[in-house]
Amino acid sequence: MDVSVADLQFTRDGRSVLQIPALTFPSGTTTAVFGPNGSGKTTLLRLIAGLERPSRGQVRLGDVPVRQDKAARRCIGMAFQTAVFLRGSVRHNLDIALRLREVSASDRRSRIEEAVRECGVAHLLDRPARHLSGGEAQRVNLARALALRAPVTLLDEPLAGIDRSARTQLLADLPRLLATFAATTILVTHDREEAFRLADRLVVIIAGGVKAAGVKSSVYARPPDRETAELLGYTVLPANGRVVAIPPSSLRPGEGSLTFMLAVEDVIDMGNHLHVIGTIEGERVDLRLPASMAPPSAGSNLKVHAESNIVLLQG
What we know:
Oligomer: single chain
Strand order of the largest sheet: 6-7-8-3-9-10
């Protein structure tokens, strides 16, 4: 099921939060809505879910406007950033979500069993839902949304608030889970790694506006401006009267066709490698040194070059 928005605006307390002329999330895809904190990502998700009313414009699931049709809202399964559970067991919390969608008792049992097994929380079914650890709660929260097998699945920061090991494991598991249970998936994240690991499409939102949208390789290859490029991990520098975006790890010590002078401020020992922290033309730069290279001293200048770059049309 396609999800589309048209002429969408949302204001809160007289302040514009979102302004999106047009945007489509194609059926059968997983899209990461990616941007910094406060950019309007979660507001967009809540508008799609019908939890907020647009100030102007419309959200449609397929051909049906979300706010005008309760059946459209029933096509959505959503996992909120913070898992909220009712009193009772994990099993009870998953069961009531399915009961509200009028799923039969036998189907509820089979869906719950499959979802908790695939999400790795079957052993938690009879535990009080409010007594779970952060990582356990996120997995149960996800299992509850995926058990709905909704045409559209919405995930708000699905890896937020959990410890590093739990995050690493869930990051590895999520693509398989979404492929098994979800059809069209829209997830919100401010983490670049999560966006690229979990989604096949990106929507970059900054200050309430869509800066770029499409297949992630295309979005990454053509950042439209400085803000988007930096959010995608590029180092943005002035060069020969232009502004260039240099991909991660493409800035290397030595001279090349595009050479810069790095003013060294510090050298950080990361255990198995060194990082040089400094500035180029006043811009902060973090450079990983080759293992064979002697570290420069703080206060010195180091020649570096860009192995590849993109010229930005809007600096």
